[in-house]
């Protein structure tokens, strides 16, 4: 993390690693999702609370911009809502 931007890399393989992402309020942030295996329902990551939905092809990094203007806890999950993660903005 620099003073200008927060960046978190998340490996998508049998879940999300890390599954809890902690961000500072007011500093622009992005999450880089990289899927490393072909498990079916992890081919999509989405969050209604953070307003994103991305397809995750195996081996391709997808970057999602995360709003940090409001503190709180915001969930994200796979396409079938079986695997979950959380963004904490403090």
From TrEMBL:
Pfam families: Cupredoxin_1. SUPFAM superfamilies: Cupredoxins. InterPro entries: Cupredoxin (IPR008972), EfeO_Cupredoxin (IPR028096). Residues 3-87 form the EfeO-type cupredoxin-like domain. This is EfeO-type cupredoxin-like domain-containing protein. It comes from Lentilactobacillus parabuchneri DSM 5707 = NBRC 107865.
């Amino acid at each position: 993390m620099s003073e200008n931007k927060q960046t978190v890399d998340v490996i998508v393989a049998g879940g999300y690693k890390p599954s809890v992402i902690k961000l500072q309020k007011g500093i622009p942030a992005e999450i880089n999702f990289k899927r490393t295996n072909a498990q079916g329902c992890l081919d999509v990551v989405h969050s209604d609370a953070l307003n994103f939905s991305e397809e995750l092809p195996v081996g391709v990094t997808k970057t999602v911009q995360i709003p940090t203007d409001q503190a709180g806890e915001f969930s994200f999950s796979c396409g079938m809502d079986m695997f979950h993660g959380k963004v904490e903005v403090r």
